[in-house]
Amino acid sequence: MRDVAVVGVGMTRFGELWEKSLRDLYVEAALSAIENSGVDRIDSMIIGCMTSGLFVGQEHLGSIMADYLGIKHLPASRVESACASGGLAFRHAFIEVASGMSDIVMAGGVEKMTDISGDGATYALATAADQEYEVFHGATFPGLYALIAVAHMEKYGTTRDMLAAVAVKNHDNGSMNPNAQYPFKITMDMVKSSVMVADPLRILDCSPITDGAAAVILTTVDIAKKLGKAYIKVTGSGHATDAIALHSRDDLTTIAAATAAADKALKMAGKTIKDIDFAEVHDCFTIAEIAVTESVGIFEPGKGGEAVLKGETALDGSFPINTSGGLKSKGHPVGATGVAQIVEVYKQLTGSAENGRQLKNNPKVGMAQNMGGSGGSSLVHILEVA
Amino acid sequence: MVGIVGYGAHLPRHRIKVEEIAKVWGADAPSYKKGLMLREKSVPTPDCDTITLSVEATKNALRRAGGINTAEIGAIYIGSESHPYAVKPSGVTVAEAIGATPEIHTADFEFACKAGSEAMFVCLSLVKAGEVKYGLAIGGDTSQGAPGDALEYSAAAGAAAFIMGTDNLIAESVDTFSYMTDTPDFWRREHEFYPQHAGRFTGEPAYFKHTIGAAEGLMRKAGMKPEDFSYAVFHQPNGKFPMRVGKMLGFTKEQMEPGWLSPTLGNTYSGASPIGLTSTLDIAKPGDMILMVSYGSGSGSDGFVWKVTDRIDEVRDKAVRTRKLLDENLTYVDYGTYAKFRRKIKKNA
Fold this sequence. Notes:
The structure holds two protein chains of two kinds.
Chain A: E1 4-11, H1 22-37, E2 44-48, H2 52-56, H3 61-69, E3 76-79, H4 85-99, E4 104-112, H5 118-126, H6 141-156, H7 160-174, H8 188-192, E5 196-198, E6 201-202, E7 211-220, H9 221-227, E8 232-241, H10 256-269, E9 278-280, H11 286-295, H12 304-309, H13 326-330, H14 334-349, E10 365-372, E11 377-385
Parallel strand pairs in A: 2-3, 2-4, 9-10
Antiparallel strand pairs in A: 1-7, 1-8, 4-7, 5-6, 8-11, 10-11
Chain B: E1 3-10, E2 14-17, H1 18-25, H2 29-36, E3 40-43, H3 50-65, E4 73-79, H4 91-97, E5 105-109, H5 115-129, E6 134-142, E7 157-165, E8 171-183, E9 186-187, E10 196-197, H6 203-222, E11 231-234, H7 240-249, H8 253-256, H9 262-265, H10 272-281, E12 289-293, E13 298-308, H11 312-315, H12 322-327, E14 331-332, H13 335-341
Parallel strand pairs in B: 2-14, 4-5, 4-6, 11-12
Antiparallel strand pairs in B: 1-7, 1-8, 2-3, 6-7, 8-13, 9-10, 12-13
Helix pairs in contact in B: 1-2, 3-4, 6-7
């Protein structure tokens, strides 16, 4: 396998982008990544998108995005793993460069979610759960994560305040991210008095519905050096699936797919979790961040909530989590999320995170954990300074 | 010089509270009240419709117009999205009721919540062109909101009427400006009982874009700034939007409060900003400048700059003030009564 680098990144602002279509969003992020990287061509493109068919009625994304990007006959594919589609696109781009099949590959992610009603979006997102055993019986994602939250509270004594602290911390970070959908701070009281969605999860425990796209350019470390721009190395890639339905899991409180993906990625990178300086994790709901930080081994099982409350995951904490603002504050255009996580890790490792959210301790190794559904799939990547 | 010769409003006296609607649908009343800045809304009785509301509002406008001959009203335009008939004009019935037939031109306008200000715009233009001596412009609705939909908390009833002319003005029309694009945020197709809407899309790219577009365009055209106005009235689909758009434009709460009725009135659709103008005129002083901007889904806004004349002091109490209609002699109904009044209970024919 060849050594692989991320040599340029780009993303749109995340939000309710009424004036931008699916293709507008993707092309904006893709051109920004190309320009940022300094490459004069791409050999291949992998796009992560969960369900553009249900959101805007458009499939066949490889062709449409290559066409609107203006690159004739570009080999372009679309991959799907629900909300982990972006992470999966990154992994396939990594494999393509590492294998020697292509030298310069774009991994992009996009989702246009606000063209349909809230009910329509809830339906589209629920296609990532088990239709026959969960969705037909009325379960939605807030409902499924509420079950995880209740189980976590029951087993470990995780509290309402610990959940709220995740949202408050991520909004603190997101307030410094110029691309965030909700770039403002919130308080514990605001979270705890916000509208109930699925007990115990309130609206400010939930990531929003978002339009947005992100793209990164992967190439070999050799080519990256010649380009003369800031680059980082991709040293580990892990991918795992799990039972899609919650009732088929051994334990509701852990995300076993995240554990398995993290183990593989760390092993490939020759690292342990203690070598990681910071992580972007999939906080689609506040409980998800707590469960994931425990599942990938950052904290002991049952200790994730307490760690947030104590400030250990804050920007100046011992293990900063979601410096970008996470899905909660930055926004969650599902197919773009996994790629946007890589964008943030790239910025932190190259010292280019904006508006004071740059980590001060010269981070050397970052992790990005992306998740599909309620943990039916997970991607974990380890990235290091050049 | 053209402008308003007489103005008047009419509101039903029945009200339903947000809590009463939320209770039935299992919704969170505090979040609706806070999110929409809305406490209650007016409810029309079964014998109240856009035509009866229009007639009552017109009678108040005639009282303030100081004994004009209704036969000299050359045009009547009613803007509404709840004309009682799909095919059969509302305007002629109002014309007949006030003795303005048969030498008259009438038309029923529709542009979601903007239809009332369209009637005002066209009447002003006809008067200005010298085609008619007086033109009667009405904006009124018994608006529809689907049971359980967010719109049900706000869809209300009310009307305002303005007689436009050239002499004895209460308020001079200083300038007008309109701003519209094809932005489908809210619609009702034929044979549908209730309008549909595109959720949050009705906000930023629809209401705010067009209201701001019209207000800024109008102030630019008139060479005026927010501080040049004593008052500002905006379309009020709920309590929150008009206050927010006004602040975005640089107006103060004090400038907007007299015309800000929606927290306890609800959204009277085509009547909303016209009724807000009546309650603002009720307290205005000679020389005051008033900015008024409507909004209708689909989408567009009409803006007006009014300059209040000395005659306001003479006429404001010739008819009931709008705040009195809003605040006094109220009857609160439960959801069952409301459902009956609004014909939401369907029986076999």
